[in-house]
Amino acid sequence: MFWQLVLLAYLTGSLSFAILLSRMAGAPDPRAGGSGNPGATNMLRLAGKGLAISTLIGDLLKGYLPVLLAAMLGLTIEQQAWVGLAAVLGHLYPLYFRFRGGKGVATTAGTLLGLHPPTAALALIIWLAVFKVKRTSSLAALAALPLCLPLLAWQQPDALLPMTLLAALVVWRHRSNLRDLSAGKERHF
């Protein structure tokens, strides 16, 4: 059952709500405009609040629902975390969109919400605090996930290895943002 759920999570994660919603609404392809990232932040820039919120919810559910299903089927917390990682990998490298995906922040948040809601809440608080001060979504995301890992390690230590790998992947996907941040060229809201 575990491997079937991993595959299902990857395939579900491969659904890009930013691309699908932009096509349905006649909005620009998020991969071709703004930051080029098919995620909620770029959808906000290109298509407005409504499509951005819909993208955020869809991407969040891609991480949350597979973890919830794994828990309902009695998989261990570690297996649930691997299932969540598979969903995020689908978002980062979507099978349906030539492996050109987003940065994985919302799908990671959904995974954390499914694994341990207090850790997800801490990540949200950190994200909001950093965003309020710096007005930069990428910096807020880069701070939130690594800073919430100690709570996860304390409360759900079996999930730490897959979630640490997930955090490393999210940081890797933000490498262009890190370059822009260090050069003072990152976009602000």
Which tags fit this structure?
single chain, 189 residues
Task: Walk me through what this model shows.
With 189 residues, the protein is mainly α. It has ten helices and no strands. The relative contact order is 0.13. The mean pLDDT is 93.
Number of strands: 0
- The number of distinct helices, counting runs of at least 4 residues, comes to 10
Rg, Å, rounded: 16 Å
Order of helices and strands: HHHHHHHHHH
What is the residue-averaged pLDDT?
Answer: 93
Biggest sheet architecture: none
Overall morphology: globular
- Proportion of residues in extended strands: under 5%
Poorly predicted spans: none
Distance between the termini: 44 Å
Helix/strand-derived category reads: mainly alpha
Percentage of residues in helical conformation: over 70%
Brief synopsis:
The protein is mainly alpha-helical and 189 residues long. It contains 10 helices and no strands.
Protein topology:
Elements: H1 2-13, H2 17-25, H3 40-47, H4 49-72, H5 77-92, H6 105-115, H7 117-134, H8 137-155, H9 160-173, H10 175-183
Helix pairs in contact: 1-4, 1-5, 2-4, 3-4, 4-5, 4-6, 5-6, 5-9, 6-7, 7-8, 8-9
